[in-house]
C-alpha cells in the first residue's frame, strides 16, 4: 500500500489503497475493477456521519447501510434484540473517529 497523497487527477484504489488515476477502470497494482471510475467523489463517505450513525444507531446497523455493507447491516438488524450490535456499533464508531480521513476513505469509500 502506498503512503503517497493522491494528486488532483488521482485517487486511492478501493481494494489495495495504491494511488491510481481517477479515470482508471482497473488498478494497475492489484487488478481490481474500480466501482467509481470516472465519477469524481461519488464513492466518498463522511467519516463523522458514519461514526455518529455507529454510536447512536449502531444497534440497528445504520452505519453499515450508510457505508454500503448491506449484508452486515441486515445481520445487525436481525440481532439487534441481543444488544450485542449496540456494543459493537459503539466500538466501531470510536474506531471510525480515530482513523485519519485518508485511511477511512481508503477502507470504506
Automatic annotation (TrEMBL):
Q: What is its main location?
A: membrane
Q: List the lineage, top down.
A: Archaea, Methanobacteriati, Methanobacteriota, Stenosarchaea group, Halobacteria
Key words of the record: Membrane, Transmembrane, Transmembrane helix
The record's GO CC annotations read: membrane
Keyword ATP-binding among record annotations: no
Do you know which InterPro entries this protein is assigned to?
TM2
Residue ranges of the TM2 domain? 44-94
State the protein's name: NINE protein
Residues crossing the lipid bilayer are 50-67, 73-97
What is the superkingdom listed in this entry's lineage? Archaea
Pfam families in the cross-refs: TM2
Membrane topology term reads: Multi-pass membrane protein
Where is this chain's protein located in or outside the cell?
A: Membrane
Amino acid at each position: 500500500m502506498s503512503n503517497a497523497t493522491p494528486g488532483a487527477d488521482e485517487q486511492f484504489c478501493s481494494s489495495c489503497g495504491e494511488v491510481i488515476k481517477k479515470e482508471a477502470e482497473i488498478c494497475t497494482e492489484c487488478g481490481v475493477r474500480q466501482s467509481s471510475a470516472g465519477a469524481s467523489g461519488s464513492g466518498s463517505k463522511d467519516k463523522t456521519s458514519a461514526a455518529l450513525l455507529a454510536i447512536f444507531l449502531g444497534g440497528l446497523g445504520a452505519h453499515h447501510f450508510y457505508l454500503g455493507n448491506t449484508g452486515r447491516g441486515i445481520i445487525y438488524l436481525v440481532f439487534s434484540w441481543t444488544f450485542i450490535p449496540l456494543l459493537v456499533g459503539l466500538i466501531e464508531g470510536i474506531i471510525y473517529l480515530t482513523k485519519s480521513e485518508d485511511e477511512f476513505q481508503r477502507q470504506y469509500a
